Amino acid sequence: MRAAVLREYNAPLSIEDVAEPETPRDGVVLKVIACGVCRSDWHGWVGEHPRVKPGQIGGHEYCGEVVSAGPDAQYGVGDRLVAPFILACGTCPECRSGHQNTCLDQRLPGFLEPGAFAEYVAVPRDHNLARLPEGLSPTVAAGLGCRVTTAWHALTGRAALAAGEWLAVHGTGGIGLSTALLGRAMGARVVVVDIVQEKLDHALGLGMDAAVMAGEDTVDRIREITGGGAHVSVEALGIPATVNGSLRCLRPRGRHVQVGMPVGHTARMDVDMSAVYQGNLALYGTRGMPSWRYPSLLGLITSGKVDMAPLIAREVALSDVSDELAAFNGPTSPGVAVVTDFAR
Predict the structure, then answer these.
(1) Apex CA 322: angle with CA 113 and CA 55, to 5°?
(2) What does the pLDDT read at residue 270?
């Protein structure tokens, strides 16, 4: 099968013919229909993700059709499925308490084992997967493995965002735009922050209430727009400037959710703990989503209450993944790229 393989950090991926994956006893092999290109893939590509080593096949936001199923699998040939990027064991204390996204024994295709920048991907523990709803495009569904699910859990499972509250979103890349769209669908008033005017204009065109160009006056402008500060603020980049901007823009007793991944040189950073102390703020970390929460998210989408299609900017070929990853080295344009052509 064709696959895009990491051979050298910060260099074009190698398009190679590699062996097709073996079928997991407790899982399936999917023919990949669509796979998103995510900033987390970029962290591995540049060598800052501690788990991604040369030889890795990346790609963790995928949707596919079952071509082979193991004897203990729950799904069968022909089923179209979406998968969270964290494949939980289902038996550890975290899983038994409903927190599969903090499973103590995680399987991670695209990070620790071959991912979906390939024609086929092996997916063990298929109890984590969900059926692709009728009428939902596989291209849109690819983001349900990481960006959209993480955003949904950040707002509902961590911050408990309520209708009428102000939500500030710092960074309008894939996960930030997902957060803004979902927050708007939940009835929140949304202000977005970015350094790219085109992305701010795009967000405003999708119904966001306000947009702020990131700079020295970001916090003051958000406080003015929201009448005293956001109730919930989501940081979607994982860098010190936006982390501290997110904390400082909150009103008293506000909730900060760390969605952007601090890794590599940003794994440790200076954080304004005085803002946390003085404002009686709550800080939440979040990563992924428990698989049992798929129905709530899929129901919101299939009912027409939120349209995630504007998240997709372009469909690309497997050979284009390197260029998409390199684009993350600087400011990006609105929307995300999804691989849908695995023959080129």
Answers:
(1) 30
(2) 96
